[in-house]
Write a structure and sequence with these properties.
single chain, alpha/beta, Aspartate Aminotransferase, domain 2, Aspartate Aminotransferase, domain 1, 2 domains, 7-stranded mixed β-sheet, 4-stranded antiparallel β-sheet, 11 strands, 37% helix, 15% strand, binds pyridoxal-5'-phosphate
């Protein structure tokens, strides 16, 4: 890694020797007497799993067009967020920069780590675009990480690629730019992974929780240059990926359901968009590049209550910056969406 980038990480993490778990020391053997496990394998799971299961890492590298040393598999991308904050931010000294309204875990991870939060809100009147000029104006050396989310949760818009790349370039050697692409498969845009070699301070977060339908197995991927990945491996728990996850993930990926499902999500997103836009109590619906829609109503509480009384659970985003009376609805199955529309028409 360039020395300047290495200098952004917490010096004590760069200097420390990682814990060497039994399976990270020797991966091949016949008689395993190194990890104090139970020798009987009736339950199939008597052995610790590989720290970064080889077959899962190679499946994900193929899926995202990466070399295996450019990715780290984590317990959901939430763990990637947490590890990045712990790697780069010194408690009481460093900060992260976020652009609200956005995904809540960046703030939570920073607060847990004792890192302060600097906010430069998205520009609501410009479709929640980045305020690039303001971000550069307020930047100062304590800001180690910039968290961007594209498509953004909960607003659903893509951030302009030239804005993101310009930020990477201008803050090269100064900050790590993390682009959370949890919803990118639902969007009209390619992943920024293809820019990884050109922008050493770019980190991309991906997940199997959304388009791949595997939220229940907690499988996220942090994509970065190999030196950052090496440092993250020092601080991740010794055996984060449970053995059964590997097979579940590779089976699901081999089924290749995603294309057909995304086509249906697109149709349903359009159908819901049209319906919600025409309701008298709806003030605005935002165009979405994700598998959800954000809409503003006269009273979010009233809509939430009526939906919940009919068993429909939505997310009231009123407490988020600039989103008073805004509700986020996930695009469900066609049957679920039809029921949701019926209930909405009764409001
Ligand atoms: C933008 C964004 N990033 C990350 C996550 C967390 O995903 P995972 O299930 O991979 O931890 C979510 C979950 O809703 C999200 O909306």
């Amino acid at each position: 890694m360039q020395n300047e980038l290495l200098a952004l990480a917490r010096p004590e993490i760069v200097a420390m020797s990682a814990y060497r778990s039994a399976r990270s020391e020797v991966a091949k053997g016949i008689v395993w007497l190194d990890a104090n496990e139970n020798p009987w394998s009736d339950g199939l799971y008597n052995r610790y799993p590989e720290p970064q299961p080889y077959s899962l890492v190679s499946d994900l590298a193929t899926l995202y067009g990466l070399k295996p040393d450019q990715l780290l598999v984590t317990r959901g991308s939430d763990e990637g967020i947490d590890l990045l904050v712990r790697l780069f931010c010194r408690a009481g000294q460093d900060q992260i920069l976020i652009c609200p309204p956005t995904y809540g875990m960046y703030k939570v991870a920073a607060t847990i780590q004792g890192a302060a939060i600097v906010e430069v809100p998205l520009l609501k009147e410009q479709g929640f675009a980045l305020n690039l000029a303001k971000m550069l104006e307020i930047w100062q050396p304590g800001i180690k990480l910039v968290f961007l989310c594209s498509p953004n949760n909960p607003t659903g818009n893509l951030l302009a690629v030239p804005d993101v790349l310009s930020l990477c370039k201008k803050l090269n050697n100064k900050s790590i730019i993390i682009v959370d692409e949890a919803y990118v498969e639902f969007s009209a845009s390619d992943s920024l992974i293809k820019y990884l070699d050109d922008y050493p301070n770019l980190v991309v977060l991906r997940t199997l929780s959304k388009a791949y339908g595997l939220a229940g197995i907690r499988c996220g991927v942090t994509v970065a240059n190999p030196e950052i990945i090496q440092l993250l491996k020092k601080i991740i728990a010794p055996y984060p990926i449970p053995e059964p996850i590997v097979n579940i993930a590779s089976n699901q990926l081999s089924l290749n359901l995603i294309e057909d499902q995304i086509k249906i999500i697109y149709q349903e997103r359009d159908r819901l968009f049209g319906f919600i836009s025409n309701l008298p109590f709806v003030k605005k619906v935002w165009k979405s590049n994700a598998n959800f829609l954000l809409f503003e109503v006269s009273s979010s509480k009233k809509v939430m209550d009526i939906c919940l009384n009919n068993g429909i659970v939505l997310r009231d985003r009123s407490s988020e910056y600039n989103l008073n009376n805004c509700i986020r609805v996930t695009i469900g199955s066609p049957v679920e969406n039809t029921f949701f529309m019926e209930v909405l028409s009764r409001v």
